[in-house]
Specification:
Largest sheet of chain A: 6 strands, mixed
Oligomer: heterodimer
Number of helices of chain B: 13
Strand order of the largest sheet of chain A: 3-4-14-9-10-13
CATH architecture of the largest domain in chain A: 3-Layer(aba) Sandwich
Number of strands of chain B: 9
Largest sheet of chain B: 9 strands, parallel
Strand order of the largest sheet of chain B: 5-4-3-2-1-9-8-7-6
CATH class of the largest domain in chain A: Alpha Beta
Shape of chain A: globular
Radius of gyration of chain A: 19 Å
Distance between the termini of chain A: 50 Å
Number of domains of chain A: 2
Strand content of chain B: 5-15%
Largest interface: A-B, 35 and 41 residues
Distance between the termini of chain B: 27 Å
Helix content of chain B: 40-55%
Order of helices and strands of chain B: HEHEHHHEHHEHEEHEHEHEHH
Shape of chain B: globular
Strand content of chain A: 15-25%
Number of helices of chain A: 16
């Protein structure tokens, strides 16, 4: 059994392309070409060159000695926080901008929640000199002012999504509507392993450089390629998809996905999709999503803007229902404390998203010689105001 | 015979009207249907509101949001429609996104449609291949015609496949756009209408998107068998409520 997408974009019962006919030609063009383009030696060369020289890869695999001592396991941190723009998001936008160029597109659209994917998209568009429009919920624009400014400095136009709940899911709706209205010259850079086939698979492949590097780095440090566990936070799930990718079909590697419980799974203010979601269709993909009994999509909550997506990538829905992945949910409070913990123990200020992954060690115990790799997906600069407010700094 | 097929055999240009159930007021559904029939409309598309209508422009989005706020649900719509066949004989189509149907249960949904006397479904995000593999038999068992969309970007090969899978009619989206985004037609539409007419499809075609008045209705139906008005009617409802449906329909033809 494989946990990768089949050729129609299904992960078990999840995935596929539930899209209106208006989107069919766009998605079909991408579907027919993405694997072939990615396999071209010139594409691979350009992609890896940019990851090396521009993004700063490979990112270190760092043995966190004091953290390991505290929690009695061998904990390694995969330092995606050291990527250019501050998070793993740029691995995907580099890949997709090269894809867009080869497809002859000269306009880029993207959605963003907290603004990290928007910044990563605006960055590669500036790099390539391509027009860029980023859709962002009106509410998110108000609470993520520094990232809005960054996108503007990078030359992108930030368009407010004023429909629905005015957050990430609505920004995604607006980006999809833009693509419907501009089907020929525009490429839509989705920021996570969500959306219609081939997006979940394509984004996972671009992010898979994370686990590719983990394997070779671990071989060097531990004399073996496979850790006992890989841990990552999951909103839509792109950093997790990248960190899990090369271990999916290796059953001896435990996969731990960490979701945001917000104020508690049953508080009514949560983003723990695996626990609260039911099978449904969101943004063209069949997956687990948070919704009313009538099938209306509900608004999730998390202190971390990067984890409050009402759905989850179809890969992760499959990892959850098949039992391949262990799913843990972490509250706002637990994440914030774990974030501060890492600052004090290792001198690293993590993004609040990544703090969720770090927070599992309090209750989830490991054997002393277990090698546990945590994907530190982003850095905490963008969250400073949240940390200030929370800890009254 | 299915009421849609029967209607399409008449020698006339079909006028189809879309409205969102539960808008402007929660209980307007039955009155809107009755008034549309009385004023000579040929076919009605009843919109099931959805929280995330990604193929719709601002007008239908807003009506959808308002309808949900009013308290509309799939179960309530079925309740409102349970006696509709006692008062109208016009073909009725339910149009909506697939997720609410999935949550209701596709089989239970089809069953309920049959009980009420619904003639067809338009579920834009239920793709052709999934329909054929999983739902075609079920829809047919309950006498429901599934209507597919085509757009100016749809390839000839795919149009032929859709024509093959369709019965009733094909929904011809007039331009690459969301609903209500463009008014009127340009040279791109003329070419597209011409191209489709020359394909001699087995199913009649009804044009939607961009039709708002007598002029655009006439242009759209020059070669196609009918046209659908959605956003323009929603705007009329927003401004006038359920009064004056006769004057709205009267200005179309």
């Amino acid at each position: 059994m494989s946990y990768h997408a089949d050729e129609r974009g299904y992960y078990g019962e999840f995935g596929g392309a539930f899209i209106p006919e208006m989107l069919y030609p766009n998605c079909e063009e991408l579907r027919q070409n993405y694997l072939q383009i990615m396999a071209e030696p010139s594409f691979q060369e350009e992609f890896h060159q940019l990851l090396k020289d521009y993004v700063g890869r490979p990112t270190p695999l760092y043995f966190a000695e004091r953290l390991s001592k505290k929690y009695n396991a061998k904990i390694y941190l995969k330092r995606e926080d050291l990527c250019h723009t501050g998070a793993h998001k740029v691995n995907n936008t580099i890949g997709q901008i090269l894809m867009a160029k080869r497809l002859g597109k000269h306009r880029i659209i993207a959605e963003t929640g907290a603004g990290q994917h928007g910044v990563a998209t605006a960055t590669v568009c500036a790099l390539m000199g391509i027009e860029c429009v980023v859709y962002m919920g009106e509410i998110d624009i108000a609470r993520q002012a520094p990232n809005v400014a960054r996108m503007k400095m990078l030359g992108a136009e930030v368009r407010p999504a004023t429909s629905g709940s005015k957050t990430l899911k609505d920004a995604t709706n607006e980006a999809i509507r833009d693509w419907i209205n501009n089907p020929v010259d525009t490429h839509y850079i989705i920021g996570s392993v969500v959306g219609p086939h081939p997006y979940p698979d394509m984004v996972a492949r671009f992010q898979s450089v994370i686990s590719e590097e983990i394997k070779s780095q671990l071989l060097e440090k531990e004399g073996r390629e496979n850790p006992d566990y890989v841990v990552a936070c999951v909103g839509g799930g792109s950093n997790a998809a990248g960190a899990f990718y090369h271990f999916l079909d290796t059953p001896e590697v435990g996969i731990i996905a960490v979701e945001a419980a917000g104020k508690g799974i049953h508080s009514g203010e949560s983003a723990a999709t695996s626990a609260l979601g039911k099978v449904g269709i969101i943004h063209g993909s069949k997956t687990l999503l948070m919704q009313t009994p009538d099938g209306q999509i509900t608004e999730p909550y998390s202190i971390s803007a990067g984890l409050d997506y009402p759905g989850v990538g179809p890969l992760h829905a499959h990892l959850y229902t098949s039992g391949r992945g262990e799913f843990i949910s972490i509250t706002d409070d637990e994440a914030m404390k774990a974030g501060l913990d890492l600052c004090k123990l290792e001198g690293i200020i993590p993004a609040i998203e990544s703090s969720h992954a770090l927070a599992i060690f309090k209750d989830r115990k490991f054997a002393e010689d277990d090698v546990v790799v945590v994907n530190l997906s982003g850095r905490g600069d963008k969250d400073l105001q949240n940390y200030i407010d929370y800890f009254k700094l | 015979m299915n009421r849609i097929k029967q209607k399409l055999q008449e020698d006339k240009k079909i006028l189809s009207i879309y409205f969102t159930a539960g808008y402007p007021k929660l209980d307007d559904t039955v009155k809107i249907i009755q008034d549309l029939e009385q004023n000579g409309v040929d076919l009605i598309e009843i919109g099931l509101p959805f929280s995330d209508p990604l193929a719709d422009g601002p007008t239908i989005q807003a009506s959808s949001t308002a309808a949900l706020k009013n308290g509309m649900t799939t179960a309530l719509l079925f309740e409102q429609l349970k006696d509709i066949r006692k008062s109208v004989s016009i073909p009725l189509i339910l149009m909506g996104y697939f997720n609410p149907v999935l949550q209701y249960g596709v089989e239970a949904f089809c069953q309920k449609c049959e009980e009420i006397g619904i003639d067809g479904l338009i579920l834009p995000d239920l793709p052709l291949d999934v329909y054929q593999e999983e739902y075609e038999d079920l829809f047919k068992k309950h006498g429901l015609i599934n209507v597919f969309l085509i757009t100016p970007q749809t390839s000839d090969a795919r149009i032929k496949a859709i024509d093959e899978a369709s019965e009733g009619f094909i929904y011809m989206v007039s331009s690459a756009s969301t609903t209500g985004a463009k008014e009127g037609f340009g040279p791109e539409q003329a070419t597209y209408f011409e191209r489709i007419a020359s394909m001699k499809l087995k199913n009649p075609q009804i044009v939607g998107f961009g039709i708002s008045n007598a002029q655009t209705f006439e242009q759209a139906t020059e070669q196609a068998n009918g046209a659908i008005i959605g956003s323009a009617f929603i705007k009329h409802l927003t401004e006038n409520g359920v009064d004056g449906i006769s004057s709205f329909v009267g200005q179309i033809r």
